[in-house]
Amino acid sequence: MLKIVFGDIENSIYHPPTYFDNQYEDEWITDPLSVEMIKDIDKSEVISAHLIVSPVLGPISTKEISGGVKTLILMAFDESEKVFNASSCGDNCAKWIVEIGRRKDLTINLHHVLDFSSAGEFDALILNTGKIVHGYREYLDEALAIKER
């Protein structure tokens, strides 16, 4: 289940792209989920664990993919007890955060109200209040109420 906390939390990685550059494993990059996320978010093709072809940049290394994709890959594959700052992701990553949360227990923290409107139906536990939200409207109402406090 997806769990969201607004604000800082213990064990949070504030800048996941830097953590990724020092922690990722080659097999994460070639996993079908990563290949799909890289294609969707960065519009790039994974050739191997060390070579990605970007339509804008040409051949790039794994460390040159976007910070949003790096954060998603960490959310999907990092087995530590770390919580990743999803505010390093753009709104285009929201549907993937929901998908990862369907596959495993995932706790993220946010420092802004991420737009989950493209994610379809989803459930998430808002840790700040203990409320389970069902879909974007309830998430938005709860997030805005927290921000107003």
Task: Describe this structure as you would to a colleague.
39% of the residues lie in helices and 23% in strands. It has 149 residues and is an alpha/beta fold. The protein has one domain (2-148). A six-stranded mixed sheet has the order 2-6-7-1-8-9. A three-stranded antiparallel sheet has the order 3-4-5, covered by helices on one side. A hairpin with a 2-residue loop joins strand 3 (45-48) and strand 4. Helix 1 (16-23) crosses helix 4. The protein is globular. The two termini are 26 Å apart. The mean pLDDT is 95.
The major pleated sheet works out as: 6 strands, mixed
Total number of beta strands: 9
Strand-pairing-aware structural class = alpha/beta
Poorly predicted regions are none
| SSE string | EEHHHEEEHEHEEEH
- For the termini, the CA-CA separation is 26 Å
- Tell me, rounded to a whole number, the average pLDDT: 95
Judging from the principal axes of the Cα atoms, what is the shape?
globular
Estimate nothing, just give the exact number of structural domains. Answer: 1
- Helix share, percent: 25-40%
Q: What's the number of helices?
A: 6
How much of the polypeptide forms β-strand, as a percent range?
A: 15-25%
Q: Order of strands across the widest beta sheet?
A: 2-6-7-1-8-9
Rg, alpha carbons: 15 Å
